[in-house]
Amino acid sequence: MQPWFETPPGRYLAQWEQQTLDQAVVDLFGYHAVQLGLPIVDALRANRMPHRWLALAPQEDTAGRTPHLHSAYDALPFDAASLDLVVLPHSLELSPDPHATLREVERVLVPEGRVVITAFNPASLWGLRQRRAHVYRRLGVGQLYLPEAGEFLAWRRLRDWLRLLDFEVESHRFGCWRPALSAEVWLQRFDWMDALGERWWPFFGAAHCIVAVKRVRGARLVGARWKRQVTMSGATVPLAQRTGRTATPQDPS
Questions:
Q1: 144 contact partners, CB below 8 Å, separation of at least 6
Q2: Is the predicted pLDDT of residue 37 greater than 50, yes or no?
Q3: What is the pLDDT of residues 209-250, one digit of tens each?
Q4: Starting at the edge strand that comes first in sequence, how are the strands of the sheet with 51-56 ordered?
Q5: Which residues, other chains included, contact 53 with Cβ-Cβ below 8 Å and sequence gap of 6+?
Q6: Taking a C-beta distance cutoff of 8 angstroms, is the pair 152, 122 a contact?
Q7: pLDDT number for residue 61
Q8: Measured between alpha carbons, how far is residue 47 from residues 56, 63, 64, 187, 229 in Å?
Q9: Which among 171, 176, 170 has a CA at the least distance from the CA of 145?
Q10: Most-buried pick from 1, 85, 167, 223 (CB within 10 A)?
Q11: Cβ(156)–Cβ(208) under 8 Å?
């Protein structure tokens, strides 16, 4: 997928995703955050958590960035309930088992932790051109418009997967309504379609971004107790005697 993001439509999408992810994570608080994949986008640059990591799959292109670790997305080297935020920019589409990846994300997130997911929208002009290119490719002609790797996830399907894992969708946003064109000059000429698309046909954007929160039934969040109050009981305390007899302050003996 990395070489495709260096094409004109790839740079157009990466710019939208960077802005969208900045807005999605800027007000999310905690201590530990992880970005899984797609190093060309710095998904955590606007976040202020003290510990932020970039994790890439084995053999994944680094795009000039130095990852903190390499790991399969469905077997992360983190303890259960240890992360406050996980960002997956197209990582589910690239995963051999997106269900297992999402279950692993649920495992490592703390209660009320957030997951942010970006993906291509198959119900868009870009998705339509991709499906048509697959037909032509089977006939031995043409080439794909979008990256070949992975499976594109419709937003309703992704929402259902999240609900099965007790995630609650907080926000959902679409973007990139320009036609499926390859030339930079033509993409720029249709920049007016972004404003119209966001207002009139938002569900047909080429990509979408979902923010969901992990809900745990019966979980109760307790804040830090900086000071411990010591209270004195007003009840009478019995006094033990060596003779084995119990006396109270009111006992004359």
A1: 130, 133, 134, 137
A2: yes
A3: 999 999 987 655 555 443 434 343 444 444 444 444 444 445
A4: 69-70, 51-56, 32-36, 83-89, 109-120, 207-214, 167-175
A5: 32, 33, 34, 35, 68, 69
A6: yes
A7: 87
A8: 19, 21, 21, 30, 35
A9: 176
A10: 85
A11: no
Residue 134 near residue 187 (C-beta atoms within 8 A):
no
Domain 3-122+148-220 falls under CATH 3.90.76.10: no
Provide the residue type at 178 as one letter: R
What is the predicted pLDDT for the residue at 150?
Answer: 67
Non-local CB neighbours of 216 within 8 Å, separated by 6+ positions:
111, 112, 166
Domain boundaries, the chain: 3-122+148-220
Q: Which two tokens stand for residue 82?
A: 């240890």
Amino acid identity at 101:
T
What does the pLDDT average to over 13-17?
97
The two three-digit tokens of residue 194, written as one number: 């972004």
- For the stretch 115-168, pLDDT in tens is 999 999 999 999 999 988 888 888 878 788 998 866 788 899 999 999 999 999
Q: Which two tokens stand for residue 171?
A: 């926000």
**Residue 1 · residue 17 · CB < 8 Å:** no
pTM above 0.70, yes or no: yes
